[in-house]
Amino acid sequence: MYREKGLIVRVKIITAPHKGYRERVVTDFAAGAAGDVVWLGESEIPGLVEAGMLLDLTPYVEKWEDWGKFYEVGKKLGSYKGKVYAIPFETAPLVIYYRKDIFKQAGLPVPWQPATWDDVVRAALTIKEKVPDVIPFRGFYDVCLPIYMAGGKTYDPTDGKWIDKSDAILSAFKVYYDVFYSYGITPKEAELEKWDNRKLFQEGKLAILIDGVWCYIEKWGPGMTYEIENREDVVGYSYIPGLGTPGAPNYISVTGTYNWVINAKTKYPELAWELVKELSKPEIIAQWGYETSHIVTRSDAVLGEYAKEPFLKWATTVLEHSIPKPIASGYKKYVNTFKRVIIDYLVAEGKSPEECLSIFVNEAIKELGSDAVKEV
């Protein structure tokens, strides 16, 4: 296109390892060394926008007919304070995985789709009784997932405050307490010693696992780290159910994105935008999704090899039940505080849900500030 205009455009690709990538990107932006177009996780968007480092893409997407083909959850993850700063390229919701062979051994139905959280607990208790040498359950990958399962929120965008006390948060602590103490379907050591859930699942030593969609191919697929040879026959998957309490969703998942963003200091904003559009074509997104077991972010990208893979076709429907991670400053502090209370007080010391809620309120105020939190 540009050669026809007498212009030659050269794109230099700068790569970095996955480990430590987010820190590298933030450092590059701070040093003025970031590229014109950058691959960025959703959690870095607020800080970089506040620092004036990301180009506002709202005027561009308003004129881009393809924008209407992107799923809403991805659009929300690329937006901040009412403006679009990122074009979602991939997303990765959470799902339930279960070992079909263990379920059959325990006399449980296959295929399996729990209707409520109680169904998950009952299945895990059955496995605990009938297949005692297997860990029944491990979760939740996103530590705040049980809050969402109860129909709650962690952040209120209307006033920009984090929620430190609510019925849903108390319900979440109860879920964790039940898992480790009331029902004992997860050994405390698994959390405290950080057992490798994916390896245990591969080896048939773990029956039910809540994890990301990427595990199916990226972890357990052919030639991968934890390859399961007869994966299609052994690995089942289902939606994550709500708690079954008033206000709880029928099914729920939470997801984040990796996105293309444009450096606000680029000398070539129009060229950068053309490159982003090129990189965001449906066939490119589809091929990447197929190779990485991540979910496509636009409805017309379910094509090619991606469309032929039964798991990916099913996993794309999980987006119908997915909510975006909060895009707001303080997200990491909030999550880390919640996780610390669960591990240090609930799991390690056996504190009750009510005690943990009280501790969390105090810790959230300490970490985020009293003006940044509220009770619902």
What order do the helices and strands come in, and which of them pair?
Elements: H1 21-31, E1 37-41, H2 45-50, H3 58-61, H4 72-77, E2 79-80, E3 83-84, E4 87-91, E5 94-99, H5 100-105, H6 117-130, E6 135-138, H7 145-149, E7 155-156, E8 161-165, H8 167-182, H9 188-192, H10 197-202, E9 206-212, H11 215-219, H12 231-234, E10 235-238, E11 240-241, E12 251-255, E13 257-262, H13 269-279, H14 282-292, H15 304-308, H16 310-316, E14 322-324, H17 331-349, H18 353-368, E15 373-375
Helix pairs in contact: 8-18, 17-18
Protein described:
By secondary structure, this protein is α+β, with helices and mostly antiparallel strands. It folds into two domains: 3-91 and 256-324, 3-Layer(aba) Sandwich (D-Maltodextrin-Binding Protein, domain 2); 94-253 and 330-375, Periplasmic binding protein-like II (D-Maltodextrin-Binding Protein, domain 2, 3-Layer(aba) Sandwich), CATH 3.40.190.10. Helices cover 42% and strands 16% of the residues. The protein is built from 18 helices and 15 strands. It has helices at 21-31, 45-50, 58-61, 72-77, 100-105, 117-130, 145-149, 167-182, 188-192, 197-202, 215-219, 231-234, 269-279, 282-292, 304-308, 310-316, 331-349, 353-368; strands spanning 37-41, 79-80, 83-84, 87-91, 94-99, 135-138, 155-156, 161-165, 206-212, 235-238, 240-241, 251-255, 257-262, 322-324, 373-375. The strands form five sheets. Strands 6-9-5-10 form a four-stranded mixed beta sheet. The protein has a three-stranded antiparallel beta sheet with strand order 1-13-4. The chain has a three-stranded mixed beta sheet with strand order 7-8-15. The radius of gyration is 22 Å and the shape is globular. The mean pLDDT is 96.
